[in-house]
Each structure stands twice: as C-alpha cells, then as structure tokens.
Amino acid sequence: KQPNGVPLSRKNPEAADPQTDPSRWRLLDEQGRQTWHYLQSDEEIKEWPQSIADRYFLGLPTGLPPLPEPDTPLNAAQNAIAYFSQLQLPPGNWACEYGGPLFLLPGLVITWYVTETPIPTHISIEIRRYLFARQNPVDGGWGLHVEGESSVFGTAMNYVILRLLGASEEDPRMINARGMLHKLGGAINGPHWAKFWLSVLGCMEPEAVNPVPPELWLLPDWVPFAPWRWWIHIRQVYLPMSYIVSKGFRCTSTPLTRQLREEIYTQPYSSINFASHRNSISPTDNYHPKTMLLNIFNQLLVNIWGPYMRTDFIRRRAEQWTWDLIRREDANTDFANLGPVSGPMNLLACYIHDGPDSYAVARHRERMHDFLWVKDEGMLMNGTNGVQTWDTAFLIQAVVEAGLAEEVKWKPMLIKALEFLDDQQIREDCPEQGICYRHRRKGAWAFSTREQGYTVSDCTSEALKSVILLQCLPGFPKLVSDERIKDAIDTLLTMQNPSGGFASYEAIRGSQYLEYLNAAEVFGRIMIEYDYPECTTAVVTALAMFSRTYDASYRQAEIEATISKAVAWILKDQRKDGSWYGSWGICFTYAGMFALESLASVGRYCSNDDRVALACQFFLDRQMADGGWGESYKSCTDGVYTQHEKSQVVQTCWVIIALLEAQYPEREPIEKAVRMVMRRQQQDGSWKQEAIEGVFNKSCMITYPNYKFIFPVKALGMFAKRFGNPKVQ
Ligand code: LAN
C-alpha cells in the first residue's frame, strides 16, 4: 500500500491494462529511417517474420545460444560482438530505444489531439502502458526523466495525455497521480513549456504563459541576443512556439478538455487568476530559476510591448518571417525536423498555416512515427529520430580497436556498417543556408540520419574516423572517396571556437550572458553552444587520424594549428582535481575518457605529464570495491562527482579506456575492473541494462542502451592489446 492507501498499480491485478500482441510488432529500417509497424493479418505475419533484433527490442526471448565461457578479455569481446552483430539492421546500422526524457510524448499527443490526428489503437494502448510503467511507484508522479523525482512538468503533462489517450480519471493510478500533482501545487506550478502546451490544449489561459514573441526573429543579426545566436535546439523550439502563440491558436473546447480543467488545478478553473501565475513554478521544476533580467524583460513584453507598441504590421511581418523559417526547416529535413520537441510544434504550425488537409500536415503526421519506439513496457518517444550514425560509428571503432576487424567472421558486418556510413554522409549544403542560419554541412554526418541532416562536430568526427579506419584495412572497399573525406575535414575546420574547443552543432555564436535569458526553467546551459571536451576530442582525434594515416599534405598547417589549440583548451578545461565535467554522458567518467584520448593523441601520458597522472589518480580514488566505477546522474545536475550505489559496466569501461589511453602504469586496478565487466557478462555475450547512461542540458537523462555492448568491446579489446590478452578469471 502507498501512503495514501492506494495499492501500487503495478501490483494490482485488477488494473491489468490492455496490451497489444508483441509478436506482431516489426521495426522497419529504410536507409536508417526507423518506424514500428503492427501487423494486422496472419498473411502479413507470414510474409514479414519477426527478426532477432525485433525480439530483442521487445524484450522477447532472442533464442541466441549460450556461448563458450570466455577466459580472456578478447574472448569476452568476441562473445559480445557475436551477440551484438545479430542486432544489426539490414541497412547496416544499429538502433535502440532512445528514451529517458518524459516530456516528449506530451508534446506529441497534445499535437495529435489538437490537430485531430487519429491515433491508431495499438499506439494509444502502448503509450498508455509505457506511461503507467514509468509512473513513480512511490508518489504516483512523473519526473523530467525516468530516473528523476516527480515534478509538475512530468506529472501534469503525462497525466493530461493519459486522459487524452483514454485513461479514466477514476483509475487508481490516475487518482494517485492527481494527488501528487495537487501536492506539487497543480498545473499552475508548471514550467514555461508545460504552460505553453496546456494553453494550446485549452486547459490553461494564455495569460499564464510567459511571452515568446516572434518579433525576436526580426532583430538585426548584430543584436547580441538575436535568435540566430542561440543553441540550435532552443532556436528550433522557440521558432514554431512563437508562431503558434502569436497566432493565438487554441484547441476548440471539448468535454474532455473542460473536464481536465477541473482535474489539474487545486481550485476551480474559473477562480484562477492566470495572469498572476506566469512565474509560478514548483521547486522541483525550477532547476534553472529565471533571472531578474528575464523577469523584467517579460514584464516589458507583457505590459508595454504587447498592449501599446506591437502593431499589426509588426505582428504580421514577424509571423510571416517565422513561418518562412519553419517552412525552410521542413524543406531542409523533408519534415523530419531537428528534434522531438520542435517536430510536433512544426506540425501544429503547418496545421495552422496550411490547414488540416495540406501535404505538409500529412507528411508531418507520417514523420511523427520516426520518433516512436516500442519495447516491453510499451511505446515511448525517442530523443531523436534514432542513434543510427553515432552507434554504428562507435561499434566500428570498438571492433577495430580490439584488433578484431580483420577476422573473417566480422567482415560482412563491418562492410555493411561502412556501407551505411557511406550512404549517410551529407553531400550538399542546405539551399540558401545563410538565410535560415544553417551551418555548413557538406561532408558532415548527423547524429541520426542524412535526412535529418544536421552537422554535429563529434558525429562527423566519429563517423569519419570509422570510415578511415575501415577503408585503410586490407579487403575493405573504398566507398567514401578522398574528395568526400576532405569535405568532412573542411566542415570540421569551420567549427572551432576562438577558445580552441568545439561545440556540438555550430561554433558558439552568442555570449554566455544569454543564459540570463534562459526561460525554460527545467534545463541548464541551453541558450548557446559551449565548448565540450567530448566534441573537442572527437575532432582532435579525427583530424589527427586523417593527417597521420590518410593524407599528410591536405591543409596540414591548419590541421596542426587546430589540434594544438584544441588540446590547449582541453587542458584549460581540466578541473583542479584532475577531472572533466561531461555534458552528454554521465559524467566525469565519460568526459575523462575523451579528454585523456585527446591528450594521448599528442603524446601526453601518465609517465610524462602531471596533468594526465592527476586525471588517473582522480579515477583510482573512486574505484569501487568490486573493481568497477559507478557515477550517479547527480554528477550532471550538481556538477560534483557523485557515487552511484552500484558500479556500472558502461562507466567502468569508460574508465578502463581512459586509463589505457593514459598508459597508466599499473595493471592491477585495470585488471580488477576488467574482471568485474567480464563477471557481469551474460552467457549469450550480452550485458543487462543498468542505470541510465546519457544526459543533456545538465538536468535531463537519456538512455544509450547500445553502450553496454560497444564500450565493453572497446575496453576489453584495448586491455588485451596492451597486456597480451592474459587469462582473466
Ligand atoms: C543529443 C544526442 C547526441 C549528442 C552527442 C552526439 C552525444 C553529443 O556529443 C553532441 C550533442 C548531441 C547531438 C545531442 C544534443 C541534444 C539532443 C539532441 C541529444 C541529447 C538527444 C536529445 C537532445 C534534444 C535537445 C532533446 C530535446 C530537448 C530539448 C531541450 C529541445
């Protein structure tokens, strides 16, 4: 029983939810575009059998055999590859659930609802199942992400969409969730993005939503806070958001939305003074409180700009220009869009502008399925349209690093992977890229697919390294031409920041002071690009590999200068205790691995460099009794290394790799870690899922389930290389 007397939903047999038949789900991968399909007829089932990968993703038995018990690290790595190779998809890439954030489905489901997009039953059933499976069993709420504590953002939004998807307000789990929401002060205490979505749905008055004026897009480029300077994700979210708000779009009221108005607040809807609640927010949601500057700015917009200065002429021009930018984003990505928050918003913007029966709306509706993922717990929304290029590139490097790339049995797998990367390289810049503020992308790789088409510095680098590594091995085809490899180098060389570091999608375009205008409350470091040790290292090592093993003469001086400036930045970013803060993986273990790889690539090791020795000592001081490392996601939110109660395979492998890159002299601690990783390996070569691996914007965690294959292969392989693959028991 929970404190308020409601039985725990998952243990309540009466609450058994309808469920689809897992044996009917199939993942289709068309050149990296991944969509899940639910087969209706026996005919279809016969024609399209379920693959091992499908079964693995759905949590069904894979039928993969137990493998001979490995006695050396390399044998363990081989077993892991044997398993992982079975999960490769026909175009050559790998896929996985890319969940964690709990604020993505709400945007999608609300958009479906307000645009009257029919939701197939098999989808609504599975989304409902997922949301209930991820409900916090103790208090009935939801957090920002699956491991986070319950917040208004998570609880109000997921409660609302469960209702839109047909959950009853009398379901004990919903009663419980409502109780938690009320305890947190009700939906009025939600952050900006929650208020925006609830207002779109007609369950909150627009006066409660802080302003997002499309006029910002009319500012000249020299203005220090002009939107083109913002981080690309914030830019692409606020763009359609400002258009939708300016258009005053609201869902026509329905019996359900009217009922919801009475469920999600602690007082009757009609008695709430919404305008006074623009800044109301629960402490659990207020990770990055708004600054006084932003509050003053908002006051001016609400009280002076809106009522007295915003003429129809300005409004129309702003709406026209933001619409033009939205249209360009859709055209550049064939409606796939940058990410899972802006995608549904662009759909809604097209619905408003082009109407419900337009091509744009139809295409957007199809594209929404690129974000959806099915697993044993139900259906969730991925953080991107997949991890295609990223995980595929890493897998190649792990196998090569382990010295196993030339084994006959892995060759077909690697050639397929190379073919995939070949296909996914972006060949052309966006048309009129300057107008839509897009960065150069010719020769680059995106994180997911070429269609999405956004250059990322480290995705380009990791893919490029993988291509070079394989194409230099005997017996591998040369698919990516010299010219295209140089295109990638050219793109990378446009991305360095004046500091020497590298950011994610673009070089930094705005001042750190722009963070004072961060209105999202729930995220940190979101307004602009930053230098990241992860991205910087990827570029350093890619450039170095290109110069050393591919073409020593091409733009040699520039490459050398870029590398030395970047390494200088890595050293500058090291903390006094020897560590580096990671922004995309949890956390110091992740960033440390990259930073030490950078330093090793310029010949800085434990033996000749105090800074490297200090970094190794930082890790050794935190090794756990079983030989592993374990870091909690709190490291990311709090900025200090925080032990997880249990050691983690993935993080342990990151540290093993870090220590090996640094040529840490003692074998004992590394071997102890290797033993721990081998002990946790299952008989079929796989590892069980442990804690969440990734992060963004300091506060939101995201899963990288393939890391538990990729990094053990790399770590075990590197250990074997260094110490001659000894017997380890
Ligand atoms: C990602 C995923 C990949 C990640 C790496 C390549 C690992 C990193 O090294 C660079 C940044 C990048 C590309 C990245 C940026 C932010 C993303 C796209 C995500 C973490 C996945 C989801 C996240 C996106 C912002 C989620 C939507 C949320 C908003 C706040 C708009």
Describe the 3D structure:
The protein contains 26 helices and 8 strands. The chain is mainly alpha-helical and 729 residues long. The strands form 4 sheets. A two-stranded antiparallel sheet has the order 1-2. Lanosterol binds next to helix 9, helix 17 and helix 19.
Distance linking N and C termini: 44 Å
Roughly how much helix do the residues carry, as a percent range?
40-55%
Note the total helix count: 26
Q: Quote the beta fraction.
A: under 5%
Radius of gyration: 25 Å
Largest sheet: 2 strands, antiparallel
Strand order of the largest sheet: 1-2
Instruction: Note poorly predicted spans.
Output: 1-14
Summarize the entry for a quick read:
46% of the residues lie in helices and 5% in strands. The protein contains 26 helices and eight strands.
Question: What are its keywords?
Answer:
two-stranded antiparallel sheet; 8 strands; binds lanosterol; mainly alpha; disordered N terminus; 729 residues; two-stranded antiparallel ribbon; single chain
List the helices and strands and how they pair.
Elements: E1 25-30, E2 33-38, H1 42-47, H2 52-57, H3 73-85, H4 104-114, H5 121-133, H6 152-164, H7 172-183, H8 192-201, H9 232-246, H10 255-263, H11 292-309, H12 312-333, H13 342-354, H14 359-367, E3 372-375, E4 378-381, H15 388-401, H16 411-424, H17 457-471, H18 482-493, H19 533-550, H20 556-573, H21 588-601, H22 610-620, E5 629-631, H23 634-638, E6 643-648, H24 649-661, H25 668-679, E7 694-696, E8 700-702, H26 707-723
Antiparallel strand pairs: 1-2, 3-4, 5-6, 7-8
The protein binds lanosterol.
Residues 233, 237, 339-341, 383-384, 390, 447, 456, 458-459, 504, 523, 534-535, 584, 696-697, 702 line the site of lanosterol.
